[in-house]
């Protein structure tokens, strides 16, 4: 196994499936099955999930809402997604814990690094909800921060495209995919991998990032086993 402890980042939008808003249950079950495969193979899995399928602080601010208020709403959205994913994983027979950066002890443990790593060692999937717990950040930054804190080998950013391209493959048919890139190359070519705060945190802590298509069955397991899937960004 190439990676023994991973941090999987899923966007909230990924959970929408073909819907315009909210959570698609079929998609949730598919993701749970993908995650089960890697857990069963002995890999330790932590997950950060976004909230964009429910609420984004920036979108609220654009409509005149207070940004900080909106960002907290976005963080709560990630807890809703985290609970949904937790339910689907448990239905698949996986032990899980949800840890939240905002305390809500009826539904989630508070984020405690030592507890999180202990859960991982015991084979439980740990879902980190409520982002970093701070407004003006994203769940990509939360994913990077948590990955570093728990000593993950890699951050796996599951998206609907199969890697990083020189231009947007959904708009440009000639777009060329990169198999691997250095942090410096991403920066110099101005490629979009994660927001700058998250990206810089990864680079400074030498945490590799793999961007891959989470909607293709088997991809997650292939990556854990060391197959070249998606685009690897490393030092
Ligand atoms: N958010 C925040 N602080 C964080 C993480 C998230 O304020 O540490 C808020 C922010 O408003 C963001 C929303 O939660 O827009 C949902 O997260 P994100 O946009 O990263 O979700 P994704 O794009 O992955 O679905």
From TrEMBL:
<feature type="binding site">
    <location>
        <position position="56"/>
    </location>
    <ligand>
        <name>ATP</name>
    </ligand>
</feature>
<feature type="binding site">
    <location>
        <begin position="132"/>
        <end position="139"/>
    </location>
    <ligand>
        <name>UMP</name>
    </ligand>
</feature>
<dbReference type="InterPro" id="IPR036393">
    <property type="entry name" value="AceGlu_kinase-like_sf"/>
</dbReference>
<dbReference type="GO" id="GO:0033862">
    <property type="term" value="F:UMP kinase activity"/>
</dbReference>
<dbReference type="GO" id="GO:0044210">
    <property type="term" value="P:'de novo' CTP biosynthetic process"/>
</dbReference>
<keyword id="KW-0418">Kinase</keyword>
<dbReference type="GO" id="GO:0005737">
    <property type="term" value="C:cytoplasm"/>
</dbReference>
<dbReference type="InterPro" id="IPR001048">
    <property type="entry name" value="Asp/Glu/Uridylate_kinase"/>
</dbReference>
<comment type="similarity">
    <text>Belongs to the UMP kinase family.</text>
</comment>
<dbReference type="InterPro" id="IPR015963">
    <property type="entry name" value="Uridylate_kinase_bac"/>
</dbReference>
<dbReference type="Pfam" id="PF00696">
    <property type="entry name" value="AA_kinase"/>
</dbReference>
<dbReference type="GO" id="GO:0005524">
    <property type="term" value="F:ATP binding"/>
</dbReference>
<feature type="binding site">
    <location>
        <position position="159"/>
    </location>
    <ligand>
        <name>ATP</name>
    </ligand>
</feature>
<comment type="function">
    <text>Catalyzes the reversible phosphorylation of UMP to UDP.</text>
</comment>
<feature type="binding site">
    <location>
        <position position="71"/>
    </location>
    <ligand>
        <name>UMP</name>
    </ligand>
</feature>
<comment type="subunit">
    <text>Homohexamer.</text>
</comment>
<feature type="domain" description="Aspartate/glutamate/uridylate kinase">
    <location>
        <begin position="4"/>
        <end position="213"/>
    </location>
</feature>
<keyword id="KW-0808">Transferase</keyword>
<feature type="binding site">
    <location>
        <begin position="9"/>
        <end position="12"/>
    </location>
    <ligand>
        <name>ATP</name>
    </ligand>
</feature>
<protein>
    <recommendedName>
        <fullName>Uridylate kinase</fullName>
        <ecNumber>2.7.4.22</ecNumber>
    </recommendedName>
</protein>
<feature type="binding site">
    <location>
        <position position="168"/>
    </location>
    <ligand>
        <name>ATP</name>
    </ligand>
</feature>
<feature type="binding site">
    <location>
        <position position="165"/>
    </location>
    <ligand>
        <name>ATP</name>
    </ligand>
</feature>
<feature type="binding site">
    <location>
        <position position="51"/>
    </location>
    <ligand>
        <name>UMP</name>
    </ligand>
</feature>
<keyword id="KW-0963">Cytoplasm</keyword>
<dbReference type="GO" id="GO:0006225">
    <property type="term" value="P:UDP biosynthetic process"/>
</dbReference>
<keyword id="KW-0547">Nucleotide-binding</keyword>
<keyword id="KW-0067">ATP-binding</keyword>
<feature type="binding site">
    <location>
        <position position="52"/>
    </location>
    <ligand>
        <name>ATP</name>
    </ligand>
</feature>
<comment type="pathway">
    <text>Pyrimidine metabolism; CTP biosynthesis via de novo pathway; UDP from UMP (UMPK route): step 1/1.</text>
</comment>
<dbReference type="InterPro" id="IPR011817">
    <property type="entry name" value="Uridylate_kinase"/>
</dbReference>
<keyword id="KW-0665">Pyrimidine biosynthesis</keyword>
């Amino acid at each position: 196994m190439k990676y023994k402890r991973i941090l999987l980042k899923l966007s909230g939008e990924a959970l929408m499936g073909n819907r315009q808003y909210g959570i698609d249950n079929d998609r949730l079950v598919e993701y749970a099955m993908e995650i089960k495969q890697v857990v069963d193979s002995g890999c330790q899995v932590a997950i950060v999930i976004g909230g964009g399928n429910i609420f984004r602080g920036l979108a609220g601010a654009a409509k005149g809402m207070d940004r900080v208020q909106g960002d907290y709403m976005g963080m709560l959205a990630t807890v809703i997604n985290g609970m949904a994913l937790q339910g689907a994983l448990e239905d698949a027979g996986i032990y899980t814990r949800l840890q939240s950066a905002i305390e809500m002890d009826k539904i989630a443990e508070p984020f405690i690094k030592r507890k999180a790593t202990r859960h991982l060692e015991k084979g439980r999937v740990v879902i980190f909800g409520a982002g970093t717990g701070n407004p003006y950040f994203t769940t990509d930054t939360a994913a990077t921060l948590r990955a570093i804190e728990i000593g993950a080998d890699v951050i796996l950013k599951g998206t609907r495209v199969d890697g990083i391209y020189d231009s947007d493959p959904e708009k440009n048919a000639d777009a060329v995919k990169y198999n691997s890139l250095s942090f410096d190359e991403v920066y110099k070519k101005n490629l979009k991998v994660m927001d700058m705060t998250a990206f810089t945190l990864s680079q400074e802590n030498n945490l590799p990032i793999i961007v891959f298509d989470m909607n293709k069955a088997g991809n997650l397991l292939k990556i854990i086993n060391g197959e070249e899937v998606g685009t690897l960004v490393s030092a």
